Amino acid sequence: GPKCHSTLELVDASMSHQKEDWQNAIDEDISGWDGTASVKGEPPYAIFKFKDGTVSAGMEQPWAIFAFSDGTTKMVQHLKLMTDTNVGYDERWVRAFRVMVSTTGTDAGDFTTVYSGRQRYGYWLTHMFAATAAKYVKFVVDEPSHGWRQLGEIELMVADITGSQMANQETEIAVVQEFNVRNFPNPFNLETTIEVTLPAASHVKVGVYNLLGQQVQVLADHSLNAGSHRMRWNGRNEYGETVPCGIYYLRVQTADHVKVHRMLLLK
């Protein structure tokens, strides 16, 4: 399953506040100004790398490049972002961003966009996308488009699998023929893993709803490739609040199909 990213190192960065540079986005501190990155410049950017690797500068958007400290290529599919540390200014928090990956190098032409996301609120928000092989991961800020930008913390989750397993996964994706949804364990306590299997690439919305049909949490709302995709629900609503135990419904909608799956949360 996914796990938190390995140790990252800051290599270069554009103008930032003296005590609020890009390093604050990967130091696991989310308290006050010390837990906030406030960056500026034309454009603002930051570069992160493996501790034993190198990268090049000179991009045209605000961005940050991440890599894994062990220097290996991994399957990335899960990013957590916190943008509000309860300090600063509402208009400065990152609202729109892109995730780009590269398995070769760090020049602009090496990267491919795998996810375009929006941060709906400042608390931790999980962004899921199709599992993709990556040696470098670039975080690009799209909004705000000028002036100071602020964010709290970035966590990149990866699938702990080997290169041969990556090849097997690609083969498995190619032969998927039906649309399927499941979660495990079910019933569950605190957290459950949700697996969505797609026969073809499609825009997919995955949402959790209560017995009244009210939306509790959106786990995904973007394009996914054909194959199996996993995401987790931690029994919280979109505001980060723990929900009561009981029955919840997982609704998965693609361009052509809708499936509703029953889940039971126990505490």
Arrangement of strands in the largest sheet: 2-4-5-10-7-8
User: What is the CA-based Rg, rounded?
Assistant: 19 Å
Average pLDDT: 77
Q: Please, how many helices? A: 1
Order of helices and strands: EEEEEEEEEEEEHEEEEEEE
The portion of residues forming beta strands comes to over 45%
Largest sheet: 6 strands, mixed
Q: Provide the low-confidence segments as ranges.
A: 1-6, 50-61, 161-176
Written description of the protein model:
The chain is mostly beta strands and 267 residues long. Helices cover 5% and strands 46% of the residues. It is built from one helix and 19 strands. Strands 2-4-5-10-7-8 form a six-stranded mixed beta sheet, with no helix packed on it.
Layout of secondary structure:
Layout (H helix, E strand, L loop, with lengths): L1 E3 L4 E5 L23 E3 L6 E4 L13 E5 L6 E9 L13 E7 L9 E7 L6 E10 L1 E8 L5 E3 L1 E7 L3 H13 L4 E5 L7 E7 L3 E8 L5 E10 L2 E7 L12 E8 L4 E8 L2
Parallel strand pairs: 4-5
Antiparallel strand pairs: 1-12, 2-4, 3-11, 5-10, 6-9, 6-12, 7-8, 7-10, 13-14, 14-17, 15-16, 15-18, 18-19
